[in-house]
């Protein structure tokens, strides 16, 4: 059939742009991991001297015995811990800072509101003028970041992405009787991974999920002014810039959501819990982790726990576990690993990988 011709005096038809080849299919691998902890260890015995509590009470309810606290007089902060963890992750991957195409820092305790902590970390490690931004997802920040970074690499937009999970929640703690329900729980730290494109298309995320219940925000929040307090809660100047948490509601949410999230992720992948080599879960409470283990009939070695040593380190929790597991040879290429987190927002998410 002869294509239509333009009328006399009319503008010629635009030429059809050349067709573009489909982007090459790639897999995504975890090339390296690293972690960093502050120098100060805060034990339950230390807390006994600071508030009305006891080692027995803390361990029974949370499983926590020690946690690390950033010493700002020594320059320890979200920025410095993130830079150290990322440097170690790059070394683990056999790469240099110049190899990064993008850097994401998952944190709810940025160094300051501007600039993004990721930009300062990029400068600290001598990185290139790559993309850099912060991601705020509370305890889910690192898992949400894994899903985002993975898909950016799969799309062909980037080949090497650094992802850090770091929080220094100690700056939002009240280490007195008024704040003991939260101060016993949280610790500071950072964990990092380097993700890279690979020709092995079997590597990467098998299934994932990300959820939020905005109506539950009032169960964990950090008010900075009177208007930040939920409706029905009288503003209290003594509670500004400190974590406010409804512990019973958060525990109920986590106990119910945790197994449902794991099952949803398994169903999406067409797998069973027995098919997964390791569950790397946010370390919020030892009792919650134990309940999930029993729900799926998992042996102890398949669901890692280190909350006794670090407490709840928010976005750093999952990558701290991963770095320990990887360095110990318990997570390696060929394994199926599920990352799971839940926290403020309320948020919950998962990322099931074929390593």
Structural commentary:
This protein is α/β, with parallel strands linked by helices and 355 residues long. It folds into two domains: 27-198, Peroxisomal Thiolase, Chain A, domain 1 (3-Layer(aba) Sandwich), CATH 3.40.47; 204-354, 3-Layer(aba) Sandwich (Peroxisomal Thiolase, Chain A, domain 1), CATH 3.40.47.10. 30% of the residues lie in helices and 23% in strands. It is built from ten helices and 13 strands. It has a five-stranded mixed β-sheet, sandwiched between helices. It has a four-stranded mixed β-sheet with strand order 8-13-12-11, sandwiched between helices. A two-stranded antiparallel ribbon has the order 2-3. Helix 4 links the parallel strand 4 (102-106) and strand 5 (131-135). Helix 3 (78-93) crosses helix 4 and helix 7 packs parallel to helix 8. It is globular. The model has no long low-confidence stretch (mean pLDDT 93).
């Amino acid at each position: 059939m002869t294509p239509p011709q333009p009328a006399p005096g009319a503008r010629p038809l635009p030429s059809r742009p050349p067709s573009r080849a489909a982007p090459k299919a790639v897999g995504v691998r975890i090339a390296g991991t690293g972690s960093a902890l502050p120098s100060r260890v805060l034990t339950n015995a230390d807390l006994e001297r600071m508030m009305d509590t006891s080692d027995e009470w803390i361990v029974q309810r949370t499983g926590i015995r020690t946690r690390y606290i950033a010493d700002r007089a020594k320059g320890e902060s979200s920025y410095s811990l993130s830079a150290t963890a990322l440097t170690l992750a790059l070394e683990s991957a056999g790469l240099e800072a110049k190899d990064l195409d993008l850097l994401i820092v998952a944190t709810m305790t940025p160094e300051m509101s501007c600039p993004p902590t990721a930009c300062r970390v990029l400068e600290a490690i001598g990185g290139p003028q790559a993309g850099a931004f912060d991601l705020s997802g509370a305890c889910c920040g690192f898992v949400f970041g894994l899903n985002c970074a993975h898909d950016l690499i799969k799309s062909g937009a980037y080949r090497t992405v650094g992802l850090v999970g770091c929080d220094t929640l100690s700056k939002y703690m009240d280490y007195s009787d008024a704040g003991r329900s939260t101060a016993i729980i949280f610790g500071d730290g950072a964990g990092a991974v380097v993700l890279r494109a690979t020709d092995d298309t079997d590597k990467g995320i098998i299934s994932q999920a990300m959820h939020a219940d905005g109506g539950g925000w009032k169960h964990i929040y950090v008010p900075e002014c009177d208007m930040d307090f939920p409706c029905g809660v009288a503003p209290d100047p003594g509670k500004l810039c400190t974590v406010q948490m409804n512990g019973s509601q958060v525990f109920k949410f986590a106990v119910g959501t945790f197994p449902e999230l794991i099952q949803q992720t398994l169903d999406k992948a067409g797998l069973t819990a027995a098919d997964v080599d390791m569950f790397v879960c946010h370390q919020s409470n030892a009792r919650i982790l134990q309940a999930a283990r029993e729900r799926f009939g998992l042996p102890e070695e398949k669901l890692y726990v280190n909350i006794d040593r670090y407490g709840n380190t928010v976005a750093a929790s999952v990558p701290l576990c991963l770095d320990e597991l990887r360095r110990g040879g318990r997570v390696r290429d060929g394994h199926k690993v599920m990352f799971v987190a839940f926290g403020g927002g309320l948020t919950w998410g998962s990322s099931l990988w074929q390593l």
